[in-house]
Amino acid sequence: MLQPYEEPVMETEDEATTWIALSDLMTGLMAIFLTLSIAILVNQHAQRDEIVQDVQMALKNSGLEIETDPRTGDMNIAADFAFESGKAVLKPEGKAILDQLMPVFAKTVFAELSGEQQEQITRLIVEGHTDSVGGYASNMKLSTERANAVLTYIDTEMPDFPHKAELLAKMTAVGRGENDASPSENPADRRVLLRFDFKQIDWTKQSPSRQ
């Protein structure tokens, strides 16, 4: 005997309403999180821009002619003035640049920036570079030695200046070798950059549920 056809059980109106409400809630939470994330990023970039501008202004007011990237604050210590080609021994010209730059830079970062701004700076990177002449491995070694030569000079040869210990505690030497060099030999590629390493956002602490 044929059984009568039965319609499949459908969600009740109450169940459907519950799912819609939950969906709306999740959409709302995502919108809140997205808005919060954008606000945090905008605020962080504004803080970084302010740090860069403050450092640039301090250098300008001190009469220092250091090539500085207006977006990142990277300071270019040209190695053709600081080092002989293929060498990592600081020349007198390079030492003179550091003698002028480091006290002003340390004072700006550790005495003139606010505590909140200082917290944004995790490291101060001393980044060595070479031109494209020579092998990759030898250039990487040379660039690291140049960065270390800058740190060693600040630590052991420069007279003491305010905030010197704090400056050194933040500094890290790294080598980029010929990675950013021109295809052919270019003296401008032989340089050392002093650059900021800024604090990254911990997104696990930014969830709306933790506010």
TrEMBL record:
Origin species, per record, is Alysiella crassa
Q: Does the keyword Transmembrane helix apply?
A: yes
Record-annotated OmpA-like domain positions: 70-211
Q: Which InterPro entries match?
A: Bact_OuterMem_StrucFunc, OmpA-like, OmpA-like_sf
Print the keywords alphabetically: Membrane, Transmembrane, Transmembrane helix
Q: Where are the transmembrane segments?
A: 20-42
| GO CC list | membrane
SUPFAM superfamilies, per the entry:
OmpA-like
Please give the PROSITE patterns that the UniProt record associates with this protein: OMPA_2 (PS51123)
The family database entries (Pfam families) matched by this protein are listed as: OmpA (PF00691)
Keyword Chaperone present in the record's keywords: the answer is no
Q: What is this protein called?
A: Outer membrane protein P5
Tell me the CDD domains matching this sequence.
OmpA_C-like
